[in-house]
Amino acid sequence: MAGSVPGAVDFEAFVRARSGALVRTGYLLTGDAALAHDLVQEALVRTWPHWARISTGAPEAYVRTVMTRLQISWRRRKWRGEIPTERLPERALGQEVDADVDGELAWALAHLPVRQRQVVVLRYAEDLPVEQVAQILGCSAGTVKSQASRGLASLRAALTPAGGRAAGDRPAPGSRAGDRATRDPGAGDRSTGEHTDTARAGGGT
User: Fold this and answer.
1) pTM, two decimal places
2) pLDDT digits (tens, 9 = 90+) for 145-164
3) Where in the sequence of the chain do the CATH 1.10.10.10 domains occur?
4) The RNA polymerase sigma factor 70 region 4 type domain covers which part of the protein (predicted)?
């Protein structure tokens, strides 16, 4: 199939190379491993028809944008059950969430408001600059900074023994994402000034 569909080989290579990172992002956004896989798969289904256009730019940023918009849409519809998907070129999504995802961090993130969670995940777990997060989420840089500050404050409260779950109920800490997500917000707000053309991401969905 891949050989007969223009762009399919490149798309499959992208999925193989980046699906693990995308599923990890999906898990931090949703707090649910199965839902993370569904989120990534649906985002890829919606990305595929536009692949010829976006593949020359920043396709991963495009997929992340679709994922964040889908997450909001699913929550609004109180979606439950399987997502109907179209056929994709042969692909292989990772079956497990990346081992470095901290279960305790995912638990704390799941208790943040959706926008704060998205900002914290994109800004710190994915290490994107403020302007790029703002572009993905369709908000101002100031909103990203304020939501990041509030989100980090809530995470710190939840991840300390006094504010979080009892120690015996917590998954083992120590993830790379957790270290980044709880660092000083002042340091985290520095920006490289990068911009990614994702304004139209998901627009054809």
Assistant:
1) 0.61
2) 999 999 999 988 888 775 44
3) 99-191
4) 108-155
